[in-house]
Design goal:
Elements: H1 3-14, E1 23-29, H2 35-39, H3 47-54, E2 56-58, E3 61-62, H4 70-77, H5 83-86, H6 120-127, E4 133-137, H7 140-144, E5 153-158, E6 161-163, H8 174-181, E7 192-193, E8 221-222, H9 227-233, H10 238-254, E9 263-269, H11 271-279, H12 284-308, E10 313-319, H13 327-334, E11 340-341, H14 344-360, E12 376-379, E13 382-385, H15 388-393, H16 398-409, E14 415-419, H17 421-424, H18 433-441, E15 448-454, E16 459-460, H19 475-478, E17 482-486, E18 492-494, E19 498-499, H20 503-511
Parallel strand pairs: 1-9, 1-10, 2-18, 3-19, 4-5, 4-9, 11-16
Antiparallel strand pairs: 2-17, 5-6, 7-8, 10-17, 12-13, 13-15, 14-15
Helix pairs in contact: 3-12, 10-12, 11-12
The structure holds zinc ion.
Length: about 525
């Protein structure tokens, strides 16, 4: 027993808390912007509407860090920590782990190996070892990161099947095998996504040239007739969210969650992200997706409530990030400056220059025609230094290379700021949200030597993909809904900034459990009944 666990147990024995709710449900909607809940309020008669009107709705909710992507965002929700402390600072080094292969299918191996710290699941288990957690998502990172390092029931979707990795288990349990054997995603072949409500219920134009790479921009949208292709394509369709919730409910029943101590059911729903990327936050498609999500969640919450009772349930709904409009749309509709920004050419040129210097110094380097060595790597606003020692070996001062590169980057259209991490310590975090979000993001040992922030309407370019994007420390990308609902929650609309790192400490206060490691967030007890 660690000392922290001992202290938690001692506290519990001396001051036993009232009985806890039996089930904590954490719903993360990938790419859900809070303005969707107000924009279509009158039409949200299902689960989203119910949570927003009956719950404690923090309207100024933020993923208050800089690189607003899925992996960093999910890592904050039940850990109470910024990405700077969870160590998950980008998607591309999130959960990938070749030592943790998938079970029953092929695909990228995944585990929480890079995640640091503890989560609410660990805090609950410290006081009640019978606590269990089930976490489900279409995406590996969406299922893995809310739970932290715990070897719980964690499942995600790959090529038509729900799976997990060797990190968690050696074989898939019977209920997962039975679900997969029904081959529901394959049976979605040729199914059609049409509007849920009559045409007149949607104000958005359907025929916008920048949507979906210019192909299939109008309703209805059909899945491929081939069943294998349909099982892959359904990942971007509303049906994927209903499939994820169905799988979560079957797991909830099979594992008999919420019947004894306090269990955790985490669900991350990925279709809003897929539709948002393809069609954008201003599209008819995202409107219809959110209406469908609202319907699915009504059904999901009713099933849970019927089984464990409303008095035994507490639900949190949030998002991992928001999204920025298509730059093409911003230019067309407002005439404003909005760019897709790519810095690869600049960074590659510097790597090539360093190679030439290395060759001159006899330290080797890439050949004339080959790709240069990666002295510097650029990824979603972060420039990583790959080996400081090598710079000294070829007689190059790192600072002068970085200063010269920064001077070139800041002149690129769409770039707002280039900040060296050392400058962040002097920033006014109250008046400068961009600096604050970078401070919350950068782990000291991540090797980031420059940060680049774009102007709010500009986005990072993904070569050959014309999609709507997120990933900036901007209002559109970082503002998310945060809603608590159920036992112990004081209904109301709460203004004043609340961050996703406050969710876990607030749930901890509601459940009477304390964090086992340092957290960045604080309990928002104004939303709790006493
Ligand atoms: Zn996304």
């Amino acid at each position: 027993m660690t000392f922290a666990v001992y202290l938690a147990l001692l506290g519990w024995l001396l001051n036993p808390p009232p009985p806890r709710p039996k089930l904590v449900v954490v719903i993360t909607v990938d790419q859900l912007r809070p303005d969707y809940l107000t924009r279509w309020k009158g039409q949200l008669t299902g689960g989203l509407g119910q949570l927003a009107t009956e719950g404690a709705f923090f309207t100024d909710g933020y993923q208050d860090h800089a690189v607003t992507e899925t992996a960093p965002g999910h890592s904050t929700i039940l850990s109470g920590m910024w990405p700077a402390h969870t160590g998950i600072i980008r998607n591309s080094e999130g959960v990938q782990d070749s030592l943790a292969p998938l079970l029953g299918t092929t695909g990228p191996g995944a585990s929480p190996r890079r995640f640091r710290g503890t989560t609410l699941v660990d805090w609950l288990k410290a006081v009640d070892p019978t606590t269990r957690a089930l976490s489900v998502s279409r995406k590996d990172r969406g299922a893995i990161l809310p739970i932290g390092r715990g070897k719980e029931q964690v499942y995600w979707y790959q090529s038509g099947l729900f799976t997990t990795s060797r990190y968690y288990a050696d074989s898939l349990p019977t209920w997962v095998q039975a679900f997969n054997a029904r081959r529901l995603p394959f049976k979605a072949a040729s199914t059609v996504w049409s509007l849920l409500l009559p045409d007149s219920a949607y104000k958005e134009a359907d025929n916008e040239a920048w949507e979906n790479g210019g192909i299939g921009v109008v309703f209805p949208h059909a899945l491929p007739a081939d069943s294998v292709r349909a099982a892959a394509a359904v990942a971007g369709a509303p049906a994927m969210d209903s499939l994820t919730l169905l799988f979560a409910l079957e797991g909830f029943e099979a594992l008999r969650l919420g019947r004894k101590g306090t269990d955790v059911l985490a669900v991350s729903l990925s279709t809003t992200d897929a539709v948002g990327h393809a069609f954008g936050p201003d599209s008819r498609e995202i409107h219809d997706q959110v209406l469908r999500l609202d319907h699915y969640l009504a059904w999901f919450l009713k099933r849970l409530t019927d089984r464990v009772g409303r008095d035994n349930l507490v639900v949190v709904l949030t998002a991992d990030h928001g999204v920025t409009s298509f730059p093409e749309r911003t230019r067309a509709k407002t005439g404003g400056a909005a760019y897709r920004v790519l810095l690869d050419t600049l960074v590659t040129a510097v790597n090539r220059d360093l190679d030439r210097l290395a060759a001159g110094a006899g330290a080797g380097g890439g050949g004339a025609g080959s790709a240069p060595r990666e002295w510097l790597e650029f990824d979603t606003g972060m420039l990583f230094l790959r080996d400081n020692g090598r710079f000294a070996a070829i007689g190059v001062k790192t600072d002068s290379v970085l200063d010269a590169l920064a001077a070139r980057i800041v002149r690129v259209q769409g770039v707002a700021r280039v900040i060296r991490p050392a400058e962040l310590a002097r920033a006014d975090t109250a008046s400068d949200p961009v600096a604050r979000r970078w401070l919350h993001h950068l782990a000291p040992d991540a090797g980031v030597v420059l940060t680049v922030t774009l102007q709010p309407a500009s986005v990072w370019d993904v070569p050959n993909l014309s999609i709507a994007m997120h990933g900036q420390p901007s209002e559109d990308d970082s503002h998310v809904p945060i809603i608590f609902w159920g036992r112990g929650v004081r209904r109301g609309s709460y203004s004043g900034r609340m961050n996703t790192v406050d969710i876990a400490p607030t749930l901890g206060a509601l459940l009477g459990v304390s964090p086992l490691s340092l957290v960045d967030g604080r309990a928002r007890t104004e939303a709790l009944l006493r």
